[in-house]
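Encode chain A's predicted structure.
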Amino acid sequence: MKTTTFGRRFLLYVVPCLLASFCLLVYPVYVIRPFRAQGVRELAVALAVARYRAPFMVASVAAVFVALVWYWRRERRWLRRIASAAAPLAVVAMALASRVNIYELMFHPLGPPAFMAAGQSKLAGDEMVIAIHVSTVARAYPIRNISYYHVVNDLLDGVPIVATY
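Encoded structure for chain A:
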């Protein structure tokens, strides 16, 4: 069998693994990205992909490495061997990237909140806040600040609270 046939057969196995890995990595990020409306069906599919993609990524990595070993045993030219390793490395990189929760990186938790007296605040009169009153302590959390973090952990008069919306 000619070397070009080996190369074509190798690509026949590797390209679907690359495409599948790329889709498994990108589709959930594309659909679930913030500040974008999602349809019920597309969100359900994206969440299912995100939930079950690990075994598919492992299978893709295994398949591409089997193809690489098979190709390396038949290909004698070192330059082609080295070039053929790029695809498995890309699949591995996508598999590792799929394990990162991008939303935890984007929406990292807010540190301890800082407060000031109501008279000193620069809130507009019609600005929306989440107001909490526990015992003798009252606090207001502006929605515009919470909108990025979505959660504020605080302690009011010894009572732990979570302000969210």
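DSSP finds six helices and four strands in the chain.
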